[in-house]
From TrEMBL:
InterPro entries: ArgE/DapE_CS, Bact_exopeptidase_dim_dom, Peptidase_M20, Peptidase_M20_dimer, Peptidase_M20A. This is N-formyl-4-amino-5-aminomethyl-2-methylpyrimidine deformylase. Its EC number is 3.5.1.-. It holds the Pfam family M20_dimer. It comes from Mariniblastus fucicola. The keyword Zinc applies. Keywords: Hydrolase, Metal-binding, Zinc.
């Protein structure tokens, strides 16, 4: 068994290249569907770090393999796409600068999640550097399109198998054991358009939408002992009109449903349909509910119809894998592992749904993600990089035993 200090020393030896690589990929824009430039950098870095195999799959995910024995395989999972940085004003440094100031590296994606990806890639390379042959294969996966539903990891889950997944989303180097899912629903109310000066000639769908939203507020949702209560938030409200003097013929309410494992996509649709059925009937001729689906085009040119559904996942704190993760994270980081759940959805839901046992661990303060204050601690980045290999070893051995 290689002691944690050996992994820390190895990362310290390559800390300059870790920081340079992190800065380089943060400085390279990669909105969802436009990840090609970052993908090329990732491939080059994995090959430089002597991964046994590196390939790009059909949809553009990058996979690097460290060959192991016939024991349990471990997937390290991250994503290379980022959200739009928004207005330039408000950023202390340019959003795509990768600027290093003191112990912090700034820029869009530094936390979510190019910093964690760099830490995983460099951490995975330590298997070769220190001669720590894992029980099974180590798969370093960097997925596309996580920010818009997880198309990349959904593809990975059906084309790349592993027994265990470590999701590297930012967790402040603490243990994460799951998250609620996300289902995006559209509830559309159909009326009859008319001139606003003669409302009696139309059927105004706004009234049905208003009644629906009042009923929605009192809807009873399910809860989970690990993830807590489900929530539904109305977000967008659209009509088929742009003129303020026309009664629309349609009004659509978008719902963001953060679901727990007992609430499936089918359950969500059925529950909203029952709520629509309880409306008084005034203000609409008919109504429908559907999960948002739209075509997605990857940077490799592959088009997929993709539903806006992130599955939830929950790993029990008393499980073998959680206990092993807790002990190893504490030993490697020197601080409490503080098991908790993410408030946001991750690709871990797709991987867990495919049968992988999942835990979460990554550097970066998740509260800074998607903000113009996004930056990551370099100390935290190096600590995480030194933790991934021993954590993967501990999880594989725990499952093997």
């Amino acid at each position: 068994m290689i002691p944690p200090e050996n992994f820390r020393a190895a990362i310290e030896q390559q800390s300059d290249s870790l920081i340079d690589f992190t800065s380089k990929i943060v400085a390279t824009p990669s909105l969802s569907g436009e990840e090609g430039d970052v993908a090329a950098l990732v491939v080059t870095e994995m090959k430089r770090l002597d991964y046994d195999e590196v390939w790009t799959d059909e949809v553009g995910n990058i996979v690097g393999k460290i060959s192991g024995g016939n024991g349990p395989s471990v997937m390290l999972n991250g994503h290379m796409d980022v959200v739009d940085p928004g207005p330039k004003e408000g950023w202390l440094f340019p959003a795509f600068s990768g600027e290093v100031v003191g112990d912090e590296l700034w820029g869009r994606g530094s936390v979510d999640m190019k910093g964690p990806v760099a830490a995983m890639i460099h951490g995975g390379s330590l298997f070769k550097k220190l001669g720590a042959r894992p029980p099974g294969d180590i798969l370093m996966t960097v997925a596309v399109m996580e920010e818009i539903g997880g198309l990349g990891s959904q593809f990975l889950a059906t084309h790349t198998t592993a027994d265990i997944a470590i999701v590297g989303e930012p967790s402040r180097n603490e243990l994460r054991l799951g998250h609620r899912g996300r289902i995006e629903l559209q509830v559309r109310f159909f009326g009859r358009s008319a001139h606003a000066s003669a409302p009696q000639l139309g059927i105004n769908p706004h009234y049905a939408a208003a009644e629906f939203l009042q009923k929605l507020e009192g809807l009873s949702l399910q809860s989970d002992p690990v993830l807590g209560e489900a929530t539904i938030a109305p977000t967008l409200y659209l009509t088929d009109q742009q003129s303020a003097n026309v009664i629309p013929s349609e009004a659509t309410v978008y719902l963001d449903w953060r679901n727990v494992p007992s609430e499936s996509r089918q359950h969500a649709v059925a529950l909203i349909e029952s709520l629509i059925g309880d409306l008084s009937g005034a203000g609409h001729e008919s109504a429908e509910v559907k999960v948002t689906e739209q075509p997605r085009l990857t940077y490799t040119g592959v088009s997929r119809d993709f539903a806006s559904v992130f599955p939830p996942f929950a790993t029990s704190e008393s499980s073998t894998i959680a206990k092993a993760a807790f002990d190893k994270i504490e030993a490697c980081t020197g601080k409490p592992a503080s098991p908790d759940v993410w408030q946001f959805a991750t690709d871990g839901g797709h991987l867990a749904l495919a049968g992988m046992q999942c835990v979460g661990f990554g550097p970066g303060d998740d509260r800074l993600a998607h903000t113009n204050q996004e930056r990551i601690s370099i100390t935290e980045l190096k600590t995480a990089a030194a933790t991934y290999a021993p954590l993967a070893l501990a999880l594989a051995k725990a499952v093997e035993n």
